């Protein structure tokens, strides 16, 4: 094999590729080190948040190594539906790339295999189940024997771990790459960073010898907001109207996550009837419709995708301006992964979640009822609890999120709690009332009861059930009449999050005291509850979040009228090209690139120098068009 050290030279070569092929002038964060390490033939595990720039970490080495005669890079990706666009983006940049998956005809697949064997490809994308077939491995053998198998990139590597949020058993088979193709470097990439998943990836893929590159997981442009659920759909509508709808009534592109298929359908219909552009996406829709909705989301501007978590992995749409959760996810990893799909372009974006008591109860129940082993359930409960603690927190959300991934940081100034510190009220006494009520009820009737009944007793409501069981005679009857049911529910949720109360016996969801109750009842522990006034909630976010949209230049300067017109014309041109090529518009040029063109208004080809995102191939293909569009705006 050709030796492409020394290091300085490697870096220079890869910078050259970054500039020439992708039109970027510098690596971001740890990219340079990763690229250098992988170019030199080292194994790597890359942990980087969504939007951090993982693709270039294997695409640049693939190009550098291919040019040095080392042959093909195989990219393992679980996302058949997205391979077409990923490969399309590389072809637009002038890189010889192709994909092999079940969407191709036998004829097309054969043609690509031939290209691959003739050494005409730099990158080949394939799904893991395809890659690990004896037939395909034999093809790779023949490349390997000739020294033409350069690199394996394993994207979404957390899929190998059952601790990740998207376990794919086929990923387990990828260990064959190490066993069979000794000496071919491997780079595994993921945006999931918790220790358990990380250790599992290393073990399952035998990456013990790999160097691990961990980036900061912070996404400073994302604003985190977690609000108490009252009427979730009304709250959602208000959030979209207040924070993501422009003066012209056009709204941003966003994703709304819901727990169930049914709910997805309902919420999508509700948004549509409120005059917004929204589409449903869940595993119950047929494959063709899912693909169609995904394509529209990627290709059109300002669409809202209402989806279950079946949607989103690998969606590299850069201008998703918000991710909303109408139901609570299972754990922080999932929450972070899903919210991470907002604002990949680095511009301001919102992560908004409404959560309530029912979410907590549902999630707990799903764990309890799952057929998993007890030990495994315990891990799942621990992960859920960590998310509850985040939701109940009254200090900086980002500090807690990052802490969860092992990073220390300072209060961010860009989350709900930083921008609008919630008032804390001392709820110790009320907590004791609630706990003793649960205790007394169970003691007196030998039976446990659900939240609604317990609250009726506390608030002194005489219902049939209350009289039937004689619960109006209890000493705790009516001791909580000073608080509303909403307040009691918030407190109960908090006590569940703190493991003072446990919810059992699905489907009755009866309440029981748990370990942490004792200290509270004995007066050894105080309970402080966050209190966010309705008004504060409404004005949150809205203040700063509409800054920095498409109406702003990359440097943060608002565009002039002429610049706006020019940008609109460029976008119209781009839409045309994207349609012709059957690709999302951002694959042709990013918004940021078009904005830079609109502000700079280049007159000659030389004026295109240094505009980020215009590589050599795109310049040849589109430079003249761009100049022509711009010339109308002298
Ligand atoms: P990830 O896969 O980590 O979520 P991507 O690889 O999709 O992230 O990159 C996110 C965005 O950042 C893409 O639009 C990409 O073009 C851009 N990007 C990545 N690296 C650079 C860089 N060095 N300079 C400029 N833009 C970059
Ligand atoms: Zn903060």
Compact summary:
With 634 residues, the protein is α/β, with parallel strands linked by helices. The chain has 28 helices and 17 strands.
- What is the overall number of helices? 28
Main sheet record: 7 strands, parallel
Q: Which CATH class of the largest domain is shown?
A: Alpha Beta
Number of domains: 4
| Unreliable stretches | 540-555
Radius of gyration, in Å, reads 27 Å
Number of strands: 17
At the fold tier of CATH, the topology name of the largest domain is: Rossmann fold
Mean pLDDT: 89
The general outline is globular
The fraction of residues assigned to DSSP E strands is: 5-15%
User: Which percent bin holds the helix content?
Assistant: 40-55%
In the CATH hierarchy, what is the architecture of the largest domain at level 2?
3-Layer(aba) Sandwich
Assign the structural class, choosing from mainly alpha, mainly beta, alpha/beta, alpha+beta, or little secondary structure: alpha/beta
Please name the fourth-level CATH homologous superfamily of the largest domain. Answer: P-loop containing nucleotide triphosphate hydrolases
**Spatial strand order of the main sheet:** 3-4-2-5-6-1-7
Give the ligands present: adenosine-5'-diphosphate, zinc ion
Give the CA-CA distance, first to last residue: 53 Å
